[in-house]
Write a structure and sequence with these properties.
single chain, alpha+beta, Thiol Ester Dehydrase, Chain A
């Protein structure tokens, strides 16, 4: 298989799991399906079983920042962390009359997804995002926004992670970063 392509059977398998990951807007583009499958294929497995991931997700979704932002964490996939903003509201949009999602909101969604993808690899340790680099590829316009994140590599005190952010079936932003344990 040439570099940069994804076997269709693999894409189909991961797409079936993706559809269970809180992507209920029904119009998932081929680009979004393939992006999810590629991330899932190269991401590390989240080091907890389905019930552990569900407890972690439920606890995280109960924090005030998630309610204020209007987003939800989904950890039903064994490799991919999903953060979804199911409804873009006026306070999520940029200034100057644009309908595009504000860059600070995009940064928050990417940080949330990337941070969780890394933090879960350090159970019982304080950890958080220490580096976040975002590429804004196009305006994020659409009724909802979905960020998919995976941890790519884990060392003793740091994890490297990646995010793809989609809206209206289009890849809008990508982010990379590092999550590290707290030093004393």
């Amino acid at each position: 298989m040439p570099v940069g392509t994804l076997d269709e059977a693999l894409a189909t398998r991961y797409t079936q799991r993706m559809m269970q990951c809180n992507t209920n807007d029904g119009a998932i583009s081929k680009a979004q399906r393939l992006g999810f499958a590629a991330l899932a294929a190269r991401g590390l497995e989240i080091p907890m079983d389905a019930s552990g991931r569900r407890r972690w997700q439920d606890n995280f979704n109960s924090i005030p920042a998630m309610h204020y932002m209007g987003c939800r964490l989904d950890m039903s996939h064994e490799n991919v962390v999903v953060v979804r903003l199911p409804e873009v509201r006026p306070h999520h949009q940029g200034g100057m009359g644009t309908e595009a999602v504000n860059g600070a909101v995009i940064a928050g969604l990417c940080d949330c997804a990337l941070g969780v993808a890394g933090v879960v690899h350090f159970p019982d340790q304080r950890a958080g995002t220490v580096e976040l680099a975002i590429k804004f590829m196009r305006p994020t316009v659409g009724q909802s926004v979905t960020a998919y994140a995976v941890a790519l590599k884990r060392a003793a005190s740091v994890a490297f992670a990646e995010v793809e952010l989609y809206s209206a079936g289009r890849l809008c932003s990508i982010a990379t970063g590092m999550v590290s344990t707290a030093s004393s």
